[in-house]
Amino acid sequence: VSGKIVVFNEDWVSYGETVKYRDYAAANAASYGAVATLVRSVTPFSLNTPHTGWQDYNNSVTKIPTACITPEDAHMLHRMYKRGAKLLINIKMGAQHLSDSVSRNTVAELKGILSPDKVVLVSGHLDSWDVGTGAMDDGGGAFISWGALALLRKLNFKSRRTIRSVLWTAEEIGLVGAFAYAKRHRDENQKFTLLMESDEGTFNPLGIEFGGTDQAACVIQEIVKLLHPINATNLERSDNIGSDIMVWANEGIPRASLLNENGKYFWYHHSDADTMDVEDSENLDKCLAVWTAVAYVAADLSIDIPRK
Ligand SMILES: [Zn+2]
């Protein structure tokens, strides 16, 4: 590949599996002398929409230009290659890396009435990629995490513990806001009883995805049973919960994310198609209901949710 533009036409398997190409293609190809890389967008479905996203450069090799192309264009290049055509690609890119500037996490809370120093955290991220409007990634998650507090306040519901809403900044470029929060508020790690983040869509909600001990999952299972009227009583276990709240993955704090019918999430993710049209207001209201009920009941339990 030395001196060539390398095109990656990887098949979609899952986001976690397939995103490795977008993340590491440039650094790997550069180590073999490639001059640029083009990577098939990481999506299971396309209407000729390229998807952007984070990618990693490696300081030990030359930083070469890299861009995502649509699956349709990747397929076309592959067909041309197979029939022996000589592919000549001229890449023109306008992207530039601007210098860092100040941005902030947005924090609001409803103080607990009995144990205000103990905290259930609900969160989503405020930033999005420059394509689309970021309505789904992560406008929906930010909305329900802010809305949960607004709704509880409107209902005048007060909980034993504090419910804190954090709308993270700069998630997309590497969880910058979450890392800054964790560093500055290290003393709070013992005070978090549950960390929640919605960053995988706000489609029809099904329940909660949860990471924690069996005893903790038992408690959360009882909470999601309350969501029977909107048919969102599922509890799925996973060790891979949230994006920003992954920063606390080794602290043994129970973590939860919104389980929803997000089979089409990566159709829109990081593309021009991530607009308000993706959001359905009835589903969004139901997601808000799940998020608010779980945060409130968890914050008002008579016992702390068991930690690892
Ligand atoms: Zn996101």
TrEMBL record:
Cited InterPro entries: CPQ, Peptidase_M28
Protein name in the entry: Carboxypeptidase Q
Keywords linked to the UniProt accession: Carboxypeptidase, Endoplasmic reticulum, Glycoprotein, Golgi apparatus, Hydrolase, Lysosome, Metal-binding, Metalloprotease, Protease, Secreted, Signal, Zinc, Zymogen
Gene source species: Oryctes borbonicus
Gene3D superfamilies reported in the protein's UniProt record: 3.50.30.30, Zn peptidases
Claim: Signal is one of the keywords in the record: yes
Source lineage: Eukaryota, Metazoa, Ecdysozoa, Arthropoda, Hexapoda
Residues making up the signal peptide according to the UniProt record: none
A Pfam family of this chain: Peptidase_M28
Gene Ontology cellular component annotations, sorted alphabetically: endoplasmic reticulum; extracellular space; Golgi apparatus; lysosome
